[in-house]
Amino acid sequence: MGWTASDHQVGKVDSNFWFLIPSTLIQIIGVFVVGRSLWQHSSFNTAWAWVWVWLAITSLSSIASVVFYVTLPAEWSSFAAYLAAAAQSLLSVQLMFAIPKTFKA
């Protein structure tokens, strides 16, 4: 619905752009905290490799959403922000599989 209702203007800096900036910063801070923790405590295996892949996709998509807002039509920025949120969700799921199980039920 939002895609069809968009005005498709390029380079429009409005209130939505200024709401996108702090949202992106919060997402990047969250990714930084996860990345910093992983850097200190991770070993390399397939599960951890996928964690780093989702971390990179989240970071790049978050930053791209801000850049896209001023260089492309706004719907591309929304797509990049949605991709970043989805990648961050998959990062959380992948962490669940990558962290060794230390507790037994």
Concise summary:
It is built from four helices and no strands.
Helix-strand layout with pairing:
Layout: H1 2-5, H2 15-41, H3 46-71, H4 74-98
Fold and architecture overview:
The chain is mainly alpha-helical and about 100 residues long. The protein has one domain. The chain is built from 4 helices and no strands. The mean pLDDT is about 85.
Which structural category do the helix and sheet elements fall into? mainly alpha
Q: Quick one: biggest sheet? A: none
Number of helices: 4
Strand content: under 5%
Mean pLDDT metric: 83
Shape: elongated
Calculate the terminal CA-CA distance, rounded to whole Å. 45 Å
Uncertain segments of ≥5 residues (pLDDT<50)? none
Number of strands: 0
Primary descriptors:
mainly alpha, single chain, 105 residues, 0% strand, 78% helix
